[in-house]
Amino acid sequence: MNGLTKKNILKLKQSSTLVINEKCKKLIAEGKKVYQFGFGQSPFPVPESIVAALRNNAHKKEYLPIQGLVKLRKSISKNLKKKTGINYPEENIVITPGSKEAMLLLHVAFNGEIILSAPSWVSYEPQAIIGKNKVHWIQTTRENNWFPTANQLEKKIKSIKKKNIIFILNSPNNPSGTMCKNLKELAAVARKYNLIVLSDEIYTDLTFCNKYESISQYYPERTFISGGLSKWCGAGGWRVGFFAAPNQLSELLENIKTLASESYSTVNSPAQFAAVEAYEGDFGEYKTKTLNILRSVGNYVYSNLKSNKVLINPPQGAFYLMPEFPNKKYKNSTELCEKILDETGVAMLPASDFGFSSKKMLTRLCYIDFDGSEFLKAPINATILDDKIIEKYAPNVVEGVEKLSNWAKNL
Length: 411
Ligand SMILES: Cc1ncc(COP(=O)(O)O)c(C=O)c1O
Prior knowledge:
Low-confidence stretches: none
Distance between the termini: 47 Å
Bound molecules: pyridoxal-5'-phosphate
């Protein structure tokens, strides 16, 4: 059957993530031990008071406004103001089924082109293709902590003919686990060229230095912020995200609302009521503990894996690291990941899925193969936990890293 699918959709290809996932399943079915460093989902339980709020609101069956529950939008607005100092009023916030959907609708509505920097999250480019927005890539370097320099951004903008450009920025970053240290400089270039910035802040509550840094602090007038409950409070499956727009970009916000009304209508009501508790409640202790765990496990993996052969930048947030291996004989990073999985049982993703050339032997390592509920019961008050605690509560991570590190020694 030919011609049933639109050309832009045919351009989308299944990601090589699937190759690795299929291989994992096969190995597990054969009874082999697999270290799951591929999949990126919070290991921690949703805080009890938020779960209770969901339970208590399970009977809320009416549709809520398309834009989302007013009380929730007010709480998010207050929360953003507290963290960034910038005012995104509740009228400028839409609640979406995950921040991913918000970004997709932005691409569908937007008439212009997109700047992405490698590494970038896997879904940005496919979403741009769905929205028929051309993508321009900036290749970043390890020396610049895997973020573009202001110079690179300026050069890229000058090479684009279209006036309407969205630059997508994600810090802390999936897949590198690094933070953008030159937000101010990037913001100055953005202002000079009237760029639109989409600041994907889904991991910004998970910074190991405990500071919420957003480009909106330097370029509030044309920065969208997306975020939600998926990472910092472990509620990815609840599908609650938000999209906040500055006044200047309200035209796009209105169109996103229209698209929302013609697609998912509104996010499920009980989860929206529960999300109010997530933004209003005090989760200081939960956040400190989960961050202590992530910071410590990240540093453990970093210290035990980095060598003169395996290059890695230190972990700064989220739950990822991006190790680079020397290339001996592999055609591409997918083949490298397949080989590592075969020979050590360690599953990682090839960085070609994140915008790099497949020739670069970079991988994404996600260090959350542990039981987060159990780990939270451990004595976790130090900012860097003792190795003994990590060995006890994250044995798969410890074992997997040892296997990977020994494997790399023979390269
Ligand atoms: C960088 C990044 N942005 C956005 C998302 C989407 O999150 P959600 O749709 O659950 O809010 C993810 C999820 O994996 C992500 O890694």
